[in-house]
Design goal:
Blueprint: E1 2-5, H1 9-32, H2 41-69, H3 82-90, H4 111-136, H5 144-148, H6 154-178, H7 187-194, E2 196-199
Antiparallel strand pairs: 1-2
Helix pairs in contact: 1-2, 1-6, 4-6
Amino acid sequence: MKKVYIYSGFERFWHWMQAALIIFLAFTGFEVHGFYTFFGFDYAVKSHILASYLFIILIIFAIFWHFATGEWRQYLPTITNLNKQIQFYIIGIFKNAPHPTRKTQLSKLNPLQRLVYFGLKVIVIPLMVVTGVFYMFYRFPQGEISKTVDLGGLSNVAIIHTFGAFLLVAFLVAHLYLITTGSTVSSNLNAMITGSEELEDDSDVPQITNEIPQTDKNI
């Protein structure tokens, strides 16, 4: 094993800020919907709106960083070893089976993670942002948005937004479990804190990975 610096400073900042904002948005959002009372309706609404603006700003910076560094290629879906990865999480992980894919600096995500994260970044999170913006500015200031885009009323927008929130919560729960499935229970968590992770030092042995050819990141 060798320690490899695999997560950059911005990548870790973006990860933790995104996690904090999603948790806070979910907590305040469900209160706005009347699931419970904690902050109070007015404060929950104001806090939810403020956090949503911060989330959008973070997304803009993250998009720029991903394309500037070429890291967007990490999320390109692949079917290579996908079945093996699914079988590993369903059965193999409980039998202490070896991991079917090898993490490297050029391939940080296994095929199942690629598929899930791609769906989050291309479908779920954009859906949350768009519906959230329509929800905030519905019939404001002169009904411009509601007249231009027929979404069938505010209730439908809220339903779609809430459905996306449940998907994010489900992902968060699964994510919290899966971070414990590294070489040790805390190895994945420590890697996202320090940026470094213990990886197999088998550079002399040909291995099948999910790596996708990348261009020079300095370009």
